[in-house]
Design a protein that fits this description.
The protein is mainly alpha-helical and 169 residues long. The chain has a domain at 32-137: Winged helix-like DNA-binding domain superfamily/Winged helix DNA-binding domain (Arc Repressor Mutant, subunit A, Orthogonal Bundle), CATH 1.10.10.10. It has helices spanning 11-36, 41-51, 60-66, 71-83, 105-125, 132-149, 159-168, and strands at 57-59, 87-91, 99-103. Helix 3 crosses helix 4. The longest helix has 26 residues, at 11-36. It is globular.
Length: 169
C-alpha cells in the first residue's frame, strides 16, 4: 500500500483560506446591515449592479453572469424583487426570448438608504485596512483572477465607464 505524500502546510491552502475567511467575515458584517433595510445580500448585489449599469438595466442572462446566481436563481430573485416593486422586467425589443431587469425608483431609494451604512462598513473593515497602493494592487489581482474564473462577470456593462465614473467621484 503506497503512501500519498501530502503537504497540509502548502501555502496555496493558506492563501485561499485567508481569502475565504476574509470574504466570509466581510459578508457576515454586511449581511446584518442589509437585513436592517429588508434586503438580502443577493438583493443588494442585484440592485447595485443594476444601478451601476447603463440605463439602470441588464439582460437577465447578463445579470446571472455578473452575480453568483444561476439563470433560474436570477429569475426567482427578480420575480420576488419585482413583486416588492424594487425592480421591473422589460421585454427586449430585438429578442423576444430575452428580457431586462430594470431598477425602479423604489429600488434606487432602498439602495440609497443602505449605501451610507454599507460604505461605512466597507471603509472600516475592508478599504481602511489597506494602504492605497495595497488596495490598488489587490484590486488589480482580484480583477485578473475574476476575469480568469468568471469571464461573464462584466457582461452587459461597460466596466471602464463605470470605473472612470467611480474614480472621478
Amino acid at each position: 500500500m503506497g503512501c500519498v505524500a501530502s503537504d497540509f502546510d502548502d501555502p496555496r491552502f493558506t492563501a485561499f483560506g485567508l481569502f475565504s475567511e476574509a470574504f466570509t467575515g466581510l459578508t457576515n458584517r454586511f449581511a446584518a446591515q442589509f437585513e436592517q433595510h429588508r434586503l438580502s445580500s443577493v438583493e443588494f448585489e442585484v440592485l447595485l449592479r443594476l444601478a451601476r449599469s447603463p440605463q439602470n438595466r441588464l439582460r437577465m442572462t447578463d445579470l446571472s453572469g455578473q452575480t453568483s446566481l444561476s439563470t433560474s436563481g436570477v429569475t426567482r430573485v427578480v420575480d420576488r424583487m419585482d413583486r416588492e416593486g424594487l425592480i421591473r422586467r422589460e421585454a427586449c425589443s430585438s429578442d423576444r426570448r430575452s428580457s431586462y431587469a430594470v431598477i425602479t425608483e423604489a429600488g434606487i431609494k432602498r439602495l440609497e438608504e443602505v449605501l451610507p451604512g454599507h460604505l461605512d462598513l466597507m471603509q472600516q473593515w475592508f478599504i481602511g485596512q489597506l494602504a492605497p497602493a495595497e488596495l490598488d494592487q489587490m484590486m488589480e489581482s482580484l480583477r485578473r483572477i475574476r476575469d480568469a474564473v468568471n469571464p461573464c462577470a462584466t457582461a452587459g456593462s461597460d466596466e471602464t465607464e463605470v470605473e472612470s465614473t467611480a474614480s472621478a467621484a
